[in-house]
Design brief:
Two copies of one chain form a homodimer. By secondary structure, chain A is of the alpha+beta class. Chain A has eight helices and eight strands. In chain A, helix 1 crosses helix 2. Chain A binds a DNA duplex through helix 8.
Chain lengths: 198, 198
DNA sequence: TTTGTGCATTAACATATGTTAATTACCATT
DNA sequence: AATGGTAATTAACATATGTTAATGCACAAA
């Protein structure tokens, strides 16, 4: 295992959040973490499980989804390279209420929940980083709430494509549709209408 | 001004978040804060303004709302007694993107943004409290996202009534409707359908 | 190449929600 | 009590999205 490589990836991640953490602390995190390469289409976390770790996507793509009362698969969100597979399992709920899977071959850095919580507690720089991460997540959810309140499905799709230009090419339409809160057939119809009107 | 009374209210607020903060720090916060009693129907913050303070609702009720492209008033959320009028103006955006108004006579405790940020920076207990507050806000937004993804308007209304039994009596239907992402006329229809089927 | 499997598209129809306009109910003020 | 203004309800119709089923397409396995 090439520790320095992982440290530099973690550094890149933290810098993408405008966070500065000493390299020795990043090294400490990497020392405690485990790394997994997961092939496409694997389940990496399931409903009802205890949340024992948080994952950073070093490469690849993960998807978080609900199973609703009728058994339908509904996408809650995507975790592309450089983001975390993080959900409320990490704060407040010990049992997962959603699933995670890989949509491509994916490399994960896994950090035990207890290790992260200890780091957050003991290290002010990490605690500040955690705050920034929470604030960003909250802003994102507010942005999404705004979409459901004031936009129709077509507008939400347009904004999705702007925000995730790569994903809209590689991810199955059905997952994008449920992420937008509509049926896959509806997204198909919307795409056609957008083509026809240029 | 009865400082002790405000300190006890602030204590109640922090305990509702399972937060323990020394009383002298609460006293310090109260010393720095200003208090305002605002009559029903007043605008307390507007789009485009700089966010200079955060407000805790000591009594009464406030409402946060967007104005969409067509000029429609769309409710983003409510801040009943014991909660904060907090939006992304406090973290990341300096300019407000939404409005706040009172729906009843309301008493606010106003804390300057700079004062809170200083407190968060310098006092670990406050910093931990801020984390808990962010986590709770994030859980709430995830709950809401879930509603838009897997529920229809009727189900969202039922859940709203369970979560805010008081509000569903006192708040104008039109605000509840836009909060649920539907037109007031649609909520009216839903309520009638619910009555008819018991 | 053949076969099988899942995905995207399409069409027809069903349902939920939006829109408009009229009516009624409910207040606050005078 | 009378008035005026806002909110809620209702109905008729418009539109967006859901549902079902059929078809075609792409890709992987045999």
């Amino acid at each position: 295992m090439d520790k320095n490589y992982f440290v530099s990836q973690l550094k890149e991640f933290s810098e993408s959040y405008q966070i500065n953490v000493d390299e020795d602390i990043l090294g400490e995190i990497v020392n405690k973490a485990t790394f997994r390469v997961i092939s496409k289409g694997e389940i990496i976390a399931s409903i009802g499980e205890k949340t024992t770790a948080a994952a950073l996507v070093l490469s690849g793509l993960a998807r978080c989804y609900y199973i609703d009362n009728d058994g339908n698969d509904i996408t809650r969100g995507f975790a592309p390279e450089g983001t975390m597979c993080m959900d409320e399992g990490f704060f407040g709920y010990s049992e997962r209420i959603c699933m995670w899977e890989t949509l491509e071959e994916t490399t994960l850095m896994l950090c035990k929940t207890e290790d992260i919580k200890k780091l957050i507690k003991e290290n002010v720089a990490i605690k500040d980083a955690w705050i920034l991460l929470l604030e960003r997540a909250l802003r994102y959810k507010i942005y999404r709430e705004n979409g459901f309140l004031v936009e129709n499905a077509t507008e939400r799709y347009i904004h999705f494509k702007k925000m995730y230009p790569n994903l809209s090419e590689t991810v199955p339409q059905k997952h994008i549709a449920t992420y937008l809160g509509i049926a896959p057939e509806s997204l198909s119809r919307i795409r056609r209408a957008m083509k026809e009107t240029d």
